[in-house]
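Need Protein-S-isoprenylcysteine O-methyltransferase's 3D structure for a figure. Predict it.
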Amino acid sequence: QIAVRACFLGFAFGCGLLLSAGRSAWRHFGWYMCSLSLFHYSEYLVTAINNPRSLSLDSFLLNHSFEYNLAALSSWVEFTLEKLLFPELKQITWLSTVGLLMVIFGDCLRKAAMLTAGSNFNHIVQNEKSDTHTLVTTGVYGWFRHPSYVGWFYWSIGTQVLLCNPICVVGYALASWRFFRERIEEEEITLIHFFGEEYLEYKRKVPSGLPFIKGVKVEL
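Structure prediction for Protein-S-isoprenylcysteine O-methyltransferase:
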């Protein structure tokens, strides 16, 4: 099953390269296919390097959630319909280039966070502290408290800027912001339980990294 998923992602990446190499109206969609397939494959690969004990089929994040899959499908539908109705909208190369840069930045930041965290990183929020859990505050964690979420946030929005999907740009931004706000609050409750004052001091010094998200409120 791992091989099937990896081959599927490799095939999608290859198709994306073929579309990207041409001058057709689907060139920017080719960029998107490469970005999407590389993101999911590298999620599995970096997890295999960092934390092989937590490795599973779910590490590809292909079945992240019903909402995630619905969002992807919505972006494909919007791109196709707008390409048929407003073809000039999908030919704004400078805007797609901005989206591609957002995608590259977001994915690189997320993978840097995963590599910096090492075995502390897990796709599932942990409710019990293990002997190997440590509070990581160096590297990209010195910039943001949640760099992997910051990276994913801008990566997801960047994919829609790349596709010149105005409706999904707004939808992705709102949905991602809400998801990460709830996820960060849930995770920080656990981190405060794990590390106590050490995490609270870190929280005071380093921002979450996401706009208008301060994390869980602590009663003094």
